[in-house]
Amino acid sequence: MLRWVVLGIVGLLVFSSFGFVFAQEVKSLQVSSETCSACSSCRDFDVDKALSEANAKIENLTRLINQKEAELHKLYAELNKTKSIETLEKIVKLEDEIQLLKSDLEFYKRQELSLELIKKYTRRTPYGVEVLYYRLPREDELVKQYIEKVHPVRKDVDLDWFIAFYRQAGELTFDEYVVTDMKLRETIGEIKAGNATVEDALGLIEEKKQIWDRIYAYLGERDKLQTLKKLKELGRKQTIMKTTGVEPLSIDVGISRGWGCQLHYCFGESSPALPSQAYLYDFQKVAVWVGMYTSSTPNMNYFYDEYCTYDFTSTYDIHEYWDKAVELTYDPILGGSPVHSIQVKWFFSAYDSDDVKHDIIWQFECDATHCWLTTGRADLPDPNLVPWGTYKLDVFENYLDCCRGCLIGCQCHWCNTHCSGCFACDPSGAQNFVHEDKPNRTIWP
C-alpha cells in the first residue's frame, strides 16, 4: 500500500494510522513554471518580481470581469422588462463565466497576500532568502486571535487546527454551492413548466454568489496561516543551521501554484482533467480520510479534527469509521465524545482510456445511528472488487495542492494532502468524485 502514498516526512503516524494534510482549493488558474536545473539557480528568487506578475494578473482579470459584468447588467435590465426564460438562461451562463474569472482573481489575490508576507518577514542574503524569524508573530498570539474569530472552538487548538478548520470550511461550503447550483438548474426547468418564477431563480443566483464569497474568505484565512506556518518552520530551521555554521536554506514556502523553486510547485503543465463521464479501470485503494464534527451532520462551523487510515471496510462494517472517531475523541470529563458526525472519503487511483492515472473518490457521512451517501454521490462499491467501467464524475478542477515529497530540486505532483502527507495524486490537479443523480440514502444499517 505504501507505494501509493508518498509521505515525505518520517514519523507521520497519527491515531495508529498515518497522516496526510489537505489544502483544498476551489477553481484556480493553472500557472506553468519553468524548471530549475539546480537549487543554486533558484536563489535569485525575486519577491518584488513575483508580486508584480501577480498584480498584472489581478489587473487583467479585473478588467475582464468588469467587461463581463457590464454585459450582465444589460441582460438583467432586459430580464426585468421581459421575464424571458431565454434571457434568464443567458444570465446564468454569463454568471458562471464571471465566477470562473473571479475564482482566478481570488487565487491571485491570495497569492499576492502570501508573497507580501514573504517580503515582510524575509531578507535576501548571498546564500538565498532568509526568514526574519524574530519578526514573525508568535504562534500563541495567532491562535488567541483566531480563537476570538471562531465560535465555538476547542481550547486546545493550535495553528494546524485552524488551517484544517478553514480548509474544511471551504470544502463543505463548496458542497453547499454544488447543491444550490443543482437547485437552480431544477428551478429553470420548473419555470419552463410554469411551476416556478424568475424571482425564484434570481434568489438562487444571489445565494450562489454569497456562497462563493464565503469560500474565498475561508481560503484567504487558510493561505495566510499556511504561509505564516511555513515561514515559522523554515525560520526555526535556518536559525538552528546558522548556529552550527551551515548556510541558510533557500526559502521553501507553500504557495499552491508556481513562482519558482523556492515555493511548492509542479514541474510542467497539468494534464487535461477527466470529462464528467469517463471509462476507468485498474482501481487501486489509496487511503481513507475521516473528518469529525461536533454538529449532527458535517458542518464547517463545527469541525473538530481528522484522522486517516488504510482500512477500507466493507459496506456492512462501514460504521467502524464512526466507532474509531468516537474512540479517538473520547473525553473523560464529558464521559463520551464531542463528535456527533463524520464525513468519510474513500480515495482510489484508476486509469482512464488514455492510460493516465487519476484520483477517484467516493464520499459518505455518518452519525451514531446510521451512515448515508450525500447528494449526488454514487453507491459505494465493494472496496475489494471495484469494477471497471464508465463512471459519472464531479470533477473539481485545480482542486489539489502542489505536493513535495522531498527537498528542493525534487519533482512535485498535484496531490491530496490530508493529515500531513501526499497521496492520491492526479496529473490534472483535479479531484474526481464519483457521482449519480440520486437523493440522499442510508447505506448503514
TrEMBL record:
The answer to whether the entry has keyword Coiled coil is yes
Q: Does the keyword Coiled coil apply?
A: yes
| Key words of the record | Coiled coil
**Residues in coiled coil:** 51-111
| Protein name in UniProt | Uncharacterized protein
